[in-house]
Design a protein that fits this description.
The protein is globular. The longest helix has 15 residues. Helix 1 crosses helix 3. It is α+β, with helices and mostly antiparallel strands. A five-stranded antiparallel sheet has the order 1-2-3-4-5, with helices on both faces. 26% of the residues lie in helices and 26% in strands.
Length: 183
């Protein structure tokens, strides 16, 4: 668990993963993510999932070598605010906020926590993130979290087949450390 000023990042339960998918399943988010239609939940189901409290059930324990998906919980309401995906194999961080938590300045905090986790838990010296060049909210959140512009492919292909212009960012740290389980 990682406590930030307004968010708490933690390992999700299976139900939390469904809630995290619901948080990114609205049309505004899908403009940027481009998931195939079969991965997007109907609006009524999305809304129902986002009214539930996260953190119930047994946390999913993925192998740390592959990375980790973490949910972000709003520390005031206790509700799922978003999620961050930290895959160590690509070093490319991805994150999103649920509709009711957007436009509150939480994106920078979400990416700050994701970068911290990647650097100090997974041991990644560098973390990258890409976004569409017109996604001003994401660009602002990445810059707020200390990410700086970086080289990367000019075009990114979304899962739904669309090609979008991409802007890339990088977050570095030295030295890195990786937490290891004891026991």
């Amino acid at each position: 668990m990682l406590d930030l000023p307004r968010l708490r990042l933690q390992t999700p339960t299976l139900r939390d993963l469904k809630m995290a998918a619901a948080a990114a399943g609205d049309p505004e988010a899908q403009r940027w993510f481009g998931w195939p239609p079969e991965y997007v939940l109907p609006e009524r189901r999305r809304n129902r999932l986002l009214t539930r409290r996260p953190g119930r059930g047994r946390p999913i324990r993925e192998p740390v070598a592959e990375g980790m998906a973490l949910i972000a919980i709003d520390r005031v309401s206790g509700m799922l605010a978003g999620a961050i995906d930290v895959p160590i194999d690509t070093g490319e961080l991805g994150g999103w906020l649920a509709p009711r938590f957007r436009s509150r300045g939480l994106g920078g905090e979400l990416f700050t926590g994701g970068a911290f986790f990647a650097h100090h838990v997974l041991g990644a010296a560098a973390v990258r993130a890409g976004t569409e060049t017109t996604n001003a909210a994401c660009i602002g959140a990445l810059r707020s979290a200390g990410f700086v512009p970086a080289d990367g492919p000019d075009v990114h292909h979304l899962p739904d087949g669309r090609a979008v212009t991409a802007q890339w960012f990088r977050h570095d740290t030295k030295p890195t450390a990786r937490c290891r389980a004891v026991g």
